[in-house]
């Protein structure tokens, strides 16, 4: 019986073990009794249990007495610990006192107790309500989560029907019969409705219910569904089978499919095309691509062809969506209708590369196209830089509205006259461009230039006016292997155009390297002028203006004079042009005004005569906001009155400078219209502007006595001027014949080489008798 007992039994005498049964050997891991017999009893007891063991043995006073059952830990032969409950009995062994120890293995009991504690902790800390009921549905257990969910304390629900505490009909038996899981609406103690998932299982003494409160989840799902439904973006969920499982209203609206018709369709039935209009293959559809890669794809642009025939551009974002238990992901795709945005983008891109007035290519597009063209190694490229001759006169005399219409007509004509593959552009102002690759010989290019000029020179009518436009064309031919950049080719064509202008209106010229040298020389000359101004080497000279009736000097025209150290005297017109290009005209003009006012004031005092001081003003000077103050200060310092100063303004600039002219006239300063007749002069313009003198352009004076047209033109100008009480002065008188004709026509004043050339103030005389003879 001892050997077969499940309890471990051992006998120890004087501290040493003298007997063990099989169960005791199993407890400590011994295979044979000799592994234990003879060892000290404390060797088989864990250190923490030894004191209790010895105390228990010491309490046994008489044979047959028992100690109280005590838990202790045995130490196995391999060092592990085994929990046992032991009880000692005082007995005899071979006639000598001994102790018999009976041990019960507590391992299974301990594990069961631990399991129960874990289960209790699990139930106590679970977030879901766990309710146990009797077979007839009375509550027998109610965890803390149930208290939180339903708002009832434990002592309030024990023995109460479960339907009563959850606020709704509830039969655990029926839930189990329905498969063990149902969705239900319960109510908490304060009447709040709860969306609950109820799971039920039968126990040996009733039922256990797990009630998961999904109220927040259901609310979130409803809110999510509302958000998805109200999105402007379409949303599609394509399931693992390739069929659409979810589609919001925007998806139906954008795709043109009736509401509710998308769900259940295979995704490939939606016809998608790429940006080039090619149908998207089935294997390249968003759902297929995302399933292959497992990654989110954003910003893919496709075109959908709707059933009503309309095309819409979409921007897609697709990503995988793996639900629990799925081996193949679903694909969630959202898409925005970017049709309008794309149209706006294309329009902006067009506007960024095209001239808004003529709708021709602008400088940016022209240069980009030129870069692509010259990059092709076997092509000859021809660049034509086209400028309208004297277009500024049209703008100044007829207005910018007429000028803009002229530019539109010229653009249309250029587009019609150029080849279908040629690029026609407008660079700005009245500058146009033609880039062609259809010609390899210079003779062919000349023929094209002649064709373009003839086509553009045909008369055009704008606002009832018939106009004729001549063009100057600069031409560059870039053979294969030409190393010039697009910008350099354009610059060279521009240079050739300016060269063409030197030949006269309506001409063209091919670029030659010498042209660039001329530009460089011009740049050097500009720098030399800048240095000359800084060093005070630009002189002021004076040219008399003489009354043709009396020969008296009535005014002195002050001019700048520059004697270049290498080139010698620079022509005054060229000097003004160089100064204007180099932004020096304002500085030089102010110096000439100040010097002339002071010197002429002193000369008048010395000779006891009266004459005006005439100084030219450029458009740039008229735009200077300090001009009025400079003029007033200069007159005060020189001791002259406003009426003693005449500011000469080019006729073509008068219209744009009307405000500045009016401001000057209000101070009493006189204003002369220079080069009158070179533009589109009219009596209306003379009446609108508050002028004192007009100066007939030297080109008309030069033709007097040579051309039969010159005299009527000059006579007409004088008639218009005299009609509004203006004084007329002839510019550039060089011959006696010109002077005689001017006398006969009744011209008031004159100046020029025949009257007196420009010179220092010392050469001025009060009268020039030869002028009236």
Automatic annotation (TrEMBL):
Domain PAC: from-to ranges: 298-350
Annotated PAS domain residues: 122-159, 220-264
EAL domain segment(s): 522-772
Family annotation (Gene3D superfamilies): 3.30.70.270, EAL domain (3.20.20.450), PAS domain (3.30.450.20)
A Pfam family that the UniProt record links to this protein: PAS
InterPro entries in alphabetical order: Biofilm_reg_signaling (IPR052155), EAL_dom (IPR001633), EAL_sf (IPR035919), GGDEF_dom (IPR000160), Nucleotide_cyclase (IPR029787), PAS (IPR000014), PAS-assoc_C (IPR000700), PAS-like_dom_sf (IPR035965)
Protein name per the record: EAL domain-containing protein
Phylogenetic classification of the source organism: Bacteria, Bacillati, Actinomycetota, Actinomycetes, Pseudonocardiales
């Amino acid at each position: 019986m001892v050997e077969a007992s499940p309890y471990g039994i051992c006998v120890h005498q004087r501290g040493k073990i003298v007997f063990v049964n099989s169960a005791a050997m199993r407890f400590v891991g011994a295979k044979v009794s000799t592994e234990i017999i003879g060892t000290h009893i404390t060797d088989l007891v864990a250190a923490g249990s030894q004191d209790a063991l010895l105390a228990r043995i010491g309490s046994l006073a008489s044979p047959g007495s028992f100690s109280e059952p005590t838990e202790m830990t045995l130490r196995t032969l391999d060092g592990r610990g085994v929990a046992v409950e032991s009880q000692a009995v005082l007995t005899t062994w071979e006639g000598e006192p001994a102790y018999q120890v009976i041990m019960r293995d507590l391992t299974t009991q301990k594990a069961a107790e631990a399991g129960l504690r874990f289960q209790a902790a699990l139930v106590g800390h679970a977030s879901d309500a766990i309710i146990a009921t009797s077979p007839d549905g009375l509550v027998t257990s109610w965890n803390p989560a149930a208290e939180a969910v339903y708002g009832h304390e434990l002592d309030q629900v024990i023995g109460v029907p479960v339907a009563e505490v959850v606020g709704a009909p509830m039969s655990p038996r029926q839930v189990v019969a329905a498969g063990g899981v149902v969705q239900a609406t319960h109510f908490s103690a304060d009447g709040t409705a709860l969306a609950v998932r109820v799971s039920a299982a039968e126990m040996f003494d009733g039922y256990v219910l797990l009630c998961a409160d999904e109220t927040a989840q259901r609310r979130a799902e409803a809110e999510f569904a509302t958000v998805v439904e109200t999105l402007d973006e379409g949303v599609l969920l394509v399931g693992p089978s390739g069929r659409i499982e979810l589609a919001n209203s925007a998806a139906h609206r954008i795709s043109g499919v009736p509401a509710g018709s998308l769900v259940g369709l295979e995704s490939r039935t939606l016809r998608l095309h790429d940006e080039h209009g090619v149908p998207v293959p089935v294997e390249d559809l968003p759902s297929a691509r995302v399933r292959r890669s497992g990654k989110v794809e954003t910003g893919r642009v496709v075109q959908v062809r709707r059933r009503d025939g309309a095309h819409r551009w979409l921007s897609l974002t697709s990503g995988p969506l793996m639900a629990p238990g799925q081996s193949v992901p679903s694909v969630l795709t959202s898409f925005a209708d970017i049709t309008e945005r794309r149209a706006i983008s294309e329009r902006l891109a067009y506007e960024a590369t095209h001239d808004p007035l003529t709708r021709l290519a602008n400088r940016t597009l022209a240069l980009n196209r030129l870069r692509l063209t010259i990059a092709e190694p076997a092509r000859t490229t021809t660049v034509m830089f086209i400028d309208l001759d004297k277009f500024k006169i049209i703008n100044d005399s007829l207005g910018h509205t007429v000028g803009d219409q002229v530019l539109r007509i010229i653009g249309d004509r250029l587009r019609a006259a150029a080849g279908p593959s040629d690029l026609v552009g407008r660079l700005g102002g009245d500058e146009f461009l033609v880039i062609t690759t259809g010609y390899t010989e210079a003779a062919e290019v000349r023929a094209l230039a002649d064709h373009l000029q003839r086509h553009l020179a045909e008369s055009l009518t704008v606002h009832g006016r018939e106009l004729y436009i001549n063009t100057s064309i600069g031409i560059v031919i870039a053979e294969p292997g030409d190393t010039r950049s697009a910008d350099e080719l354009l610059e060279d064509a521009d240079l050739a155009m300016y060269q063409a202008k030197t030949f006269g209106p309506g001409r063209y010229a091919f670029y030659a390297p010498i042209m660039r040298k001329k530009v460089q020389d011009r740049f050097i000359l500009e720098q030399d002028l800048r240095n000359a101004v800084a060093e005070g080497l630009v002189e002021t000279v004076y040219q008399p203006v003489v009354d043709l009736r009396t020969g008296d000097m009535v005014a002195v025209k002050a001019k700048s004079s520059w004697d270049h150290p290498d080139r010698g005297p620079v022509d005054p017109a060229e000097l003004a042009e160089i100064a204007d290009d180099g932004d020096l005209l304002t500085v030089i003009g102010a110096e000439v005004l100040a010097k002339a006012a002071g010197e002429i004031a002193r000369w008048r005092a010395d000779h006891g005569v009266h004459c005006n001081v005439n100084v030219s003003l450029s458009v740039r000077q008229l735009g200077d906001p300090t001009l009025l103050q400079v003029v007033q200060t200069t007159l005060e310092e020189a001791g002259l009155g406003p009426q003693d100063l005449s500011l000469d303004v080019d006729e073509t600039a008068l219209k744009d400078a009307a405000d500045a002219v009016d401001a000057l006239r209000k101070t009493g300063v006189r204003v002369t219209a220079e080069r009158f007749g070179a533009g589109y002069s009219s009596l209306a313009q003379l009446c609108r502007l508050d002028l004192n003198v007009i100066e007939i352009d030297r080109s008309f004076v030069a033709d007097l006595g040579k051309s039969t047209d010159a005299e009527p033109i000059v006579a007409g100008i004088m008639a218009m001027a005299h009609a509004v009480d203006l004084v007329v002065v002839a510019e550039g008188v060089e011959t006696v014949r010109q002077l005689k004709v001017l006398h006969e026509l009744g011209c008031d004043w004159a100046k020029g080489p025949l009257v007196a050339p420009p010179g220092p103030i010392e050469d001025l005389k009060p009268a020039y008798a030869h002028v009236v003879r």
